[in-house]
Amino acid sequence: PSGVLVTLGARGPNMRKYAFDFGRTKARGEIALAPAVQRERRILNATVSLTPGGLDEPAQSTFQWATPAIVEGMRTQRVTPDDAVPPVDSTAAAPVPRTFHLLTRQEQAPNPASRVTLSAQRDALGMPRARLDWRLTELDRRSFRGFYEALGREMGRAGVGRMRMRDWVMERADAPWPASLGGGWHHMGTTRMHADPKQGVVDANCRVHGVGNLWVAGAAVYPTAGCVNPTLTLVALTLRLSDHLKAAVA
């Protein structure tokens, strides 16, 4: 986590309006800066999610809001989720946690120094293993810090609470990143789209520059990664490529 949000007042925000967690079904909202604020600060895209229990309070789930009879019924499959929702909603009067972990997802600026190459190591099939050289920039650091500076001021102004950040978040732009920093599980940008072959791998129609019969479909062609899940956009891009190929061979 990047830090914690400590809310003001006797109760924290109503998390049922923010997140839904039932069995394998999970949905939640995330907080982002307004586009105008982002442009003013000249920072990259970022979002933050709130996870209950930021300091020492246990996270609460749908099952903690339910009565023992409902929980036992769900475990023995005598109560369906649809049956459980009204009683859970009507009995969810317990105070929610007042502290929340701040989990950040931030876009990275395109960086030629970050690259994927082939290593000398071989896998079980004798093929070269991929080697990732992942590097972060001063813009990445400045965006991270600027995001939380703006968000922290707004949380205080609105009377929501106070944010307590990890020390590394507010350090200078050239300071080392923490070892715990990790990337997402979506591979993007290694065949980025650009009209200029010197700036990208594929053109606007996903065709590899200099190769007449090779196209790439997927998130690898994204010019920038953004900060949200890429799947819906990559499916739309793939369908667009399909239409282009059908028209080209018709």
Description:
- The chain folds into two domains: about 140 residues, no CATH class; about 70 residues, no CATH class.
- The chain has six helices and eight strands, in the order βββαβαααβββαβα.
- The strands form three sheets. It has a four-stranded antiparallel sheet, covered by helices on one side.
- The chain is globular.
Secondary-structure topology with pairs:
Layout (H helix, E strand, L loop, with lengths): L2 E5 L11 E4 L2 E4 L6 H7 L4 E7 L9 H4 L2 H8 L5 H11 L7 E8 L8 E8 L5 E6 L4 H20 L3 E5 L65 H19 L1
Antiparallel strand pairs: 1-5, 1-8, 2-3, 4-5, 6-7
CA-atom Rg in angstroms: 23 Å
Characterize the largest beta sheet: strand count, sense, and whether it forms a barrel. 4 strands, antiparallel
N-to-C order of helices and strands = EEEHEHHHEEEHEH
- Runs in which pLDDT lies below 50 for 5 or more consecutive residues are 54-66, 84-95
Number of helices: 6
Helical residue percent? 25-40%
Shape annotation? globular
What number is the mean pLDDT? 81
Q: Largest sheet, order of strands side by side?
A: 4-5-1-8
Distance between the termini: 52 Å
Q: Tell me the domain tally.
A: 2
Question: In what range is the share of β-strand residues?
Answer: 15-25%
How does the helix and strand content classify structurally? alpha+beta
Task: Produce a short descriptive summary.
Helix content is 28%, strand content 19%. With 250 residues, it is an alpha+beta fold. It has two domains: 3-107 and 138-170, no CATH class; 184-249, no CATH class.
